[in-house]
Amino acid sequence: xxxxxxxxxxxxxxxxxxxxxxxxxxxxxxxxxxxxxxxxxxxxxxxxxxxxxxxxxxxxxxxxxxxxxxxxxxxxxxxxxxxxxxxxxxxxxxxxxxxxxxxxxxxxxxxxxxxxxxxxxxxxxxxxxxxxxxxxxxxxxxxxxxxxxxxxxxxxxxxxxxxxxxxxxxxxxxxxxxxxxxxxxxxxxxxxxxxxxxxxxxxxxxxxxxxxxxxxxxxxxxxxxxxxxxxxxxxxxxxxxxxxxxxxxxxxxxxxxxxxxxxxxxxxxxxxxxxxxxxx
Length: 280
What we know:
The chain is mostly helical. 68% of the residues lie in helices and 6% in strands. It has helices spanning 2-162, 197-202, 207-211, 225-230, 238-241, 261-264, 274-277; strands spanning 191-195, 234-237, 256-259, 269-273. A two-stranded antiparallel ribbon has the order 1-4. Residues 164-212 and 238-280 have low confidence and may be disordered. Residues 7-41, 74-153 form a coiled coil.
């Protein structure tokens, strides 16, 4: 009975051990199935992760390519900007040089215009002077013709009044008198008749000479050397016997002109041209 109980206990413990083994085997199977499931899940997730990693890697490569392309473009753009900046600096320097040249050219043009205006003014003044000189020359020629006519008429009158005793030829100015065609500022050649009143007064002592005087109060015949030597020098104001002298400002000579009867050379009336008698 003890053995039987012992055997029953052993059988019971063996069944219990088998049940525990079966439970453990079932638990192991369950664990193995779960492990397989987890493994499958992990493998699937790993494959998905690998796929994602590959996709991201390809995207990263593409992005790197895209980034490298803008970098290259940026470098090219930077080089272009540097080139454009250099060209702008060169253009600015050239513009400054051009402005300097333009300023110098404007200064030269202004100087040339000023010089041209001065030349034009001088040419205009010269043309005006030439025109005035031609006009004065014409007036002088006309006055010379008129003077010759008046001298001819005066000589004829002297011949008629003096009975042919007075020479009708016009008296020329003394050879030593300087001539200057451009003497008068107004340009008119003024002809002057000078009467030697002192000579007329000195020869009036004799009745014959008093009777021989013409209508102008002058002796009709030539004076002798003794009578000429006895005549006193006479000073005549230039403004008194030169017509228009008060208006002539170009004369620089003396206001008093001394002359004597000896200078007349036995001519009672002398026709003298102011342009030939005086000079500056």
